[in-house]
Amino acid sequence: MIHEANHNAILMDSLYRVPILLATASNFEIEGDRALKATILGLGALTLGAIFAYASGSAAAGKAVYDQSCKTCHGATGVANPGVAKALKIPIPYLGSHDVQAMSDEDIKKVITDGVGKMRAVRSVTGKSADDVVAYIRTLKK
Questions:
Q1: For every one of its 142 residues, what pLDDT tens digit does the chain have, with 9 covering 90 and above?
Q2: Of 27, 57, 125, 129, which shows the fewest CB atoms inside 10 Å?
């Protein structure tokens, strides 16, 4: 298993190197090497996609964190617990709604980590676990 600090170093190194590979590949001037150029560009794009997919969080891990830290107020499927909404005297938005889903990942993460309105910050959900919860919330989209 890769230690998280080492993994972050590898991730940052990859984010630095892949654009260089793509820039180099896009400048090939050798006639007849279109297939090679296309292969390199395709592999670079796949690598970037994999890096960003990993960096954005795991919905499966996010569900476990959500079930432990969010479900009491936001319900098992993102539909608010009516008792909590009534007690707080506020509407709690459906997490699969257009309004919530239109928020950026960073904005959703900020709501989780800093709180908003009557929602307090969820102190137990930070860093990677917050990214995972955001990934899970994305699966609730209508």
A1: 444 444 444 444 444 555 554 555 555 555 556 666 666 666 666 555 544 444 479 999 999 999 999 999 999 999 999 999 999 999 999 999 999 999 999 999 999 999 999 999 999 999 999 999 999 999 998 7
A2: 27
Cα R_g (the chain), whole angstroms: 20
Distance CA 74, CA 70 (A): 6
Backbone φ and ψ of 60, nearest 5°: -65, -45
| 67 plus 36 within the same structural domain | no
Amino acid occupying residue 27: N
DSSP state of 119: B
Tell me, what CATH number does 99's domain have? 1.10.760.10
98 and 72 together in one domain: yes
